[in-house]
Amino acid sequence: MNLAGDRRSRILLLVYWSLIGLLILLGFGFIGGTIYGVFFHKDSPNQAQSTTFQQAGEGQTFTGIGTIRVSTTDVQPGMVILFVSFIYYPDDKAFSEELALRVKDFRQIIIDYFSPFSVSELQGLNEDDIKSELLLRFNSILRLGQIETIYFGDFMIIG
User: Fold this and answer.
1) Which CA distances in Å does 110 have to 6, 35, 62, 66, 107?
2) Domains of the chain: which residue ranges?
3) pTM for the whole structure
């Protein structure tokens, strides 16, 4: 029985040191990758500055709000699924930063707008009226610029 315990402890010790060695290798990998990325990696001039912003004509499309899902007030709640985007001009650095900082606020505005409705009420609304109201609410919280038009990539009412 002592022989089995001794063998088991050797195996555990081998596993322990193997894991320690793996952690050390990973640490060197992260440090080396960071040094390479900071000092030797060059960004392509055509590369977008952020995944939140995608090229679109003169300006760029702000897609940072993402897809929002909002429950309706029905007894069996329905769902509104919405993807909002809009054009902004990246040369205006201050406004670009404000947009990035306001993503949570934009998401909350959308939730607050849609959550009081039932599926039947939402189906009776005009999409252009919804866009106008959301645009008005978005612009009411912005201080360094204004959004001209918003677009719906997805707009589904599931009930």
Assistant:
1) 64, 42, 16, 11, 5
2) 1-42, 53-158
3) 0.63
